[in-house]
Structure formats: C-alpha cells, structure tokens
C-alpha cells in the first residue's frame, strides 16, 4: 500500500493560510522594526532614577513602555508564528531566538520601573493625580504594582531575574523543539489496512476510530515513541518545575502555585475548591465511564476506548467550510456586531487551517495590538475540529474587542478570563445543535460529544491541575521527580478520576510526558473554571437575550482593565463561590441522564 504522507507547507493552498504580511510585509521590515526597538531601549537611561521627578516624566515613561511593548510584541509574534508554520525552518528558528533574546533585554531594561514606583515617597502619586489627570489612566496598573509590593525586589535584583528569563525558558523551548520538530512517530495501519503516518495532529482522529485495533495501535505507538526518551522528558519537566519554585522563592511567595495565582489576584481557595468540587462529582464521571463501556459492548474498557463516540452510526465528517458555517449559525445569539467581526476573520486570512510537515501541533489564537488576531489550526474534518474553530475564534474576538476598546496597557487579558470567551462559543454552538437536531442517533452523538467536552475540559484539566499541584509541592519539599515517580502520581490520578470500570493501561502513566501545558504551570485549572463560567454566561445569553449580550460584549471589551474575578462578576458570575463549577457539573449530570435515556 502507498503511504499517505503529510503535505509540505508549499502544498497547502493559499486560501487556507494566514497572512502574516499583515504584521510585517517582509522579513526586511521585521529587521527594521528590530533595529527600531533596540533604539527605543536606549531611552531607558533617560527615565532611570527620575520617575519621581514629575508626573510628566512618569507619564512619558509609561508611553515609552507602551511603545516598546507594541514593537517587541510584533517582533516576537511574527518570528514565532513564522517558525510555527514549519519548526524545521532554520531561518525562523534564528529569528525567534533573536526575538526571545530581545524580549529578555526588554525585561531587563524595564526592570527599574516597578521598584522605582514602589520607592516613591508616600503621597507622591496622589500629588501627581492632582497636577495632571492623564495619570488616572494608569490607576489600575499602579494599584496592581502596589499590590505586589512585598514580592518586588530591588532594581538590581529585578534586573538579574529578568536576565535569568532566557535560561528559565530553556526547558519549555527544549520540550517544544523535541516534541514538534524532532519527534517522529512510526506509521500505523488505518481501517483499510493502509500505512498512514501517525502524527500528533491525527492521533485523536485515530482514537475516535470505530476499529478498536486502530485505536489500540495508535495508542501504543504514540506512547511507545515517548517511552523511548522517558528519562529525558522527566528531566526536562523536573527542570521546568524547579524554575517555577526558584522564581516563587526569589519573590518571597510561600509556593509556586500562590505566586501564579497572585498574578490574577485569585485566592488559593478558588483552586482548591475546584479540585474539591470536581472530586465530589467523580461518581458521575464513573457513571459516564460505565455507560460508555455498556454502549460500546465491551467486556473491558481500556484507555484507548475513551475517545471513540458511543453512537458510531451518527459519526459526523465536517469539511472546513461546513464547520465555519455551523459556527456562524450557532453564534447568532451574540448579535450582529459579533457576527460581522467573525465573518471578517473567516474571510481575511486570519486562520492557518491545515496541518503540514513541521507545523506546530494543536491550535491557538494570537496576534498583536496593531494587527488583527490570528488562529493556528490543524483541521481534521471532525466535530471536535469544528468546536476548535469556535473556541479559537472566541479568543480572537475577545482580542479584537479588547484591542479596539482598551489602551495598550490594558488590552491584553488574563488567561483566567480568556477561556471564558472561547468556551462560551463552544457552548452556544452545542446548544444550537442540540436544539435543532431531530435524529435520535445524532442527538445521542451530540450529547456524547458534549459530555466529552466536560470530561476533557472540567474533569481532565482538573486532574492536570492536581498533578501540577502535587509535583510542584514535591519539588518544593526537596524531592526529585524521577520518571518513575511522575508516572506513579499520574497513574493514581487517572485511577481516581476514571474509576473501576476502565482498565488502566500502563502506557497512560506517562501521558504527562506529552502535555505542553505543564510548561506553563497552573494554567490548566483556568480551563475548568472558564468552562464553568462560560456555561453560566451562555445560559444567561440564551435566556435573557440582549441585556446579557450587552454585558458580555462589555466583558469582551474590558481587557485587563480590572481583575479577572471582578470582570466576571460584572458579567454575571461569581467565581469566588463553588456555585459556577457545581452548576456546570449539574449540567453534566443532566446530559448524562438524557444520554442514558436514549441508549
């Protein structure tokens, strides 16, 4: 049989590629901006030691920082996204390295600002406000700086930590290059017996196959490949966690998790309550696993049986353009203004659609303050890929509305709220499909898919969050995270979350080795809290209509002009209580009841 090979970048039609020329028309323009940014950095000396001289000096410094931030943001984003098109391209590897080094220099050059502001005599900022009202624009930013006073070091120490940044990024960079550029998987035989190259992009598609042999072969081949370098993956992750612990200790935080949460002004109780509430509902998760085992007619349910749709007769193949149309229809409740921007994104080369050799796996939304947003996809013509489009465009429109409404300093939003915008889109599209589907088999399929979203976004991400909390605590207590220990922790968590009706295949114990999010610690819990908040907000939009849409669009336009929990409270959900998570999991229970009735 002829082997189906992954296309090269040049073989992908232009209509399915993003246009990074909207950031820089050429690499030469990037080089010119790089030189401009280096010149901008030289102005640091004019401000250093003088921020308390006058309100005009402080304002000029903030404006200079905004200019530097915009310039370096464009430099880094362009280089990294060019590299993501094909990680094997040495030119863009080099540009990304230069951009990363420049970002570190920026951090070093700006390191004096926060310590100087914190060192201002009492009453100086208040005096500035009385003489020039323009400074009020920066009230929230200044409040956030003062809130972190006890965790900000001296100017020299801050400079040193900033210069450590490039070294600290080492484990993440090494993992990314090993995982995306160097790691190659053997071919497996598909349902027709054809040799097909296994990739991270098509792995889930194989895991959804109705042919159990294909699922098992894909599962064992993927993890067998990671197993060959298991000690290397453990060393990389261990180094990354040690870095988190070092920076937390250097900044006088009790732990890495508290250092991470403090940035969003999220109390540790929110993180712990998420884990506690999800564990409270694990019997419902076990009930779902038991239903899956029964519906698939299996004597033993294995970890490679977790992704296959329960209702195989209704399997959906959704080409890209059809997926786009489904998203547009499902997101109609968000109104005409939202739809207009959404259509622009789909027709103006915001999106890089298909997988190609060397392309970064997964999906993301990115961009710069002055450019439109961008979306990287690896579309596979599945229902899951359709929801990925809705998800990433949720991020992109959040970026669009925030950039359009907020000044640069507040345009970027925290991850804690970012996952609300993306997951709400998925919820609305799903609610539309559940409402308009009459075929019982297709309805059962959609219910199964929605339950899978809960499993993947609430249960699984909370399991990841537990793994991060446990592993960081061990490092902070002086323990060495060997491959064996990491696998042992991970296997026990899988056993807890999936329950007695699934066979714990030994390969799943090392899934931690392939999770990129573990290199951005204490990020994944925000998927679960975001999903919960999004479930509540989607329900309000469908029930209330225009008033809820207006509140939501205001939320999308708020950037980081307030703390995440406050922004969500204004939108209509209070994440400081367990109510949104509990309500989301009650929806999971009701969906499970509906699916059981259909099966």
TrEMBL record:
Keywords: Hydrolase, Metal-binding, Metalloprotease, Protease, Zinc. Binds 1 zinc ion. GO terms for biological process: peptide metabolic process; proteolysis. Coiled coil: none annotated. One of its GO terms (molecular function) is metal ion binding. Gene3D superfamilies: Oligoendopeptidase f, C-terminal domain, Oligopeptidase f, N-terminal domain, putative peptidase helix hairpin domain like. Pfam families: Peptidase_M3 (PF01432), Peptidase_M3_N (PF08439). InterPro entries: OligopepF_N_dom, OligoPept_F_C, Pept_M3A_M3B, Pept_M3A_M3B_dom, Peptidase_M3B. Its cofactor is Zn(2+). Residues 206-586 form the Peptidase M3A/M3B catalytic domain. Its EC number is 3.4.24.-. The keyword RNA-binding does not apply. Residues 116-185 form the Oligopeptidase F N-terminal domain. Belongs to the peptidase M3B family. Has oligopeptidase activity and degrades a variety of small bioactive peptides. This is Oligopeptidase F. The lineage of its organism: Bacteria, Bacillati, Bacillota, Clostridia, Eubacteriales.
């Amino acid at each position: 049989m002829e082997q189906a090979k992954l296309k090269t970048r040049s073989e992908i039609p232009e209509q399915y590629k993003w246009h990074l020329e909207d950031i820089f028309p050429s690499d030469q323009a990037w080089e010119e901006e790089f030189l401009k940014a280096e010149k901008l950095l030289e102005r640091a000396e004019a401000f250093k030691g003088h921020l308390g001289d006058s309100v005009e000096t402080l304002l000029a410094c903030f404006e200079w920082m905004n200019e530097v931030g915009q310039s370096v943001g464009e430099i880094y984003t362009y280089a990294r996204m060019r590299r993501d098109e094909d990680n094997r391209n040495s030119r863009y590897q080099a540009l990304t390295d230069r951009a990363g080094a420049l970002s570190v220099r920026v951090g070093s050059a700006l390191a004096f600002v926060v310590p100087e502001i914190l060192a201002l005599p009492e009453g100086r900022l208040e005096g500035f406000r009385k003489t020039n009202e323009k400074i009020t624009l920066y009230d929230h930013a200044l409040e956030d700086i003062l809130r972190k006073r006890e965790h900000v070091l001296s100017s020299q120490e801050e400079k040193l930590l900033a210069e450590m940044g490039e070294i600290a990024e080492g484990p993440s960079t090494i993992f990314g290059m090993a995982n995306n550029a160097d790691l190659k998987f053997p071919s497996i035989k598909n349902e027709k017996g054809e040799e097909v190259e296994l990739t991270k992009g098509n792995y889930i598609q194989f895991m959804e196959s109705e042919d159990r042999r294909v699922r098992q072969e894909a599962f064992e081949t993927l993890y067998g490949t990671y197993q060959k370098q298991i000690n290397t993956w453990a060393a990389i992750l261990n180094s990354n966690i040690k870095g988190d612990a070092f920076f937390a200790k250097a900044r006088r935080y009790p732990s890495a998790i508290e250092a991470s949460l403090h940035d969003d002004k999220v109390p540790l109780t929110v993180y712990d309550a998420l884990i506690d509430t999800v564990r409270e509902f694990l019997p419902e998760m076990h009930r779902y696993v038991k239903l899956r085992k029964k519906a698939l007619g299996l004597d033993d349910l294995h970890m490679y049986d977790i992704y296959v749709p329960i209702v195989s007769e209704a399997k959906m193949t959704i080409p890209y353009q059809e997926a786009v149309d489904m998203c547009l229809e499902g997101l109609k409740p968000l109104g005409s203004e939202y739809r207009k921007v959404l259509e622009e994104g789909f027709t103006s080369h915001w999106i890089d659609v298909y997988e190609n050799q060397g392309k970064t796996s997964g999906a993301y939304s990115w961009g710069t303050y002055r450019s439109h947003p961008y979306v990287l996809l690896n579309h596979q013509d599945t229902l899951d890929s359709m929801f990925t489009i809705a998800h990433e465009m949720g991020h992109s429109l959040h970026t669009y509305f925030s950039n359009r409404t907020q000044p640069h300093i507040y345009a970027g939003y925290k991850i804690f709220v970012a996952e609300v915008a993306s997951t709400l889109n998925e919820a609305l599209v799903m609610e539309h499909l559940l409402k308009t589907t009459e075929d019982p088999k297709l309805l059962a399929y959609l219910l199964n898919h929605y339950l899978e979203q809960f499993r993947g976004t609430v249960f699984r991400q909370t399991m990841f969050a537990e793994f991060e909390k446990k592993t960081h605590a061990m490092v902070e207590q002086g323990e060495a995270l060997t491959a064996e220990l990491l696998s042992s922790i991970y296997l026990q968590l899988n056993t807890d979350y999936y329950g007695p009706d699934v066979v714990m295949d030994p390969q799943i114990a090392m899934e931690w080795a392939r999770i990129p999010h573990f290199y951005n610690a204490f990020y994944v819990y925000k998927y679960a809290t975001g999903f919960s908040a999004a479930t509540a907000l989607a329900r309000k939009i469908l029930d209330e209509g225009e008033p809820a849409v207006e509140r939501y669009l205001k939320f999308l336009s708020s950037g980081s002009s307030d703390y995440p929990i406050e922004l969500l409270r204004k939108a209509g959900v209070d994440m400081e209580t367990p109510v949104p998570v509990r309500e989301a999991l009650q929806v999971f229970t009701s969906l499970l009841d509906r699916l059981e009735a259909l099966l």
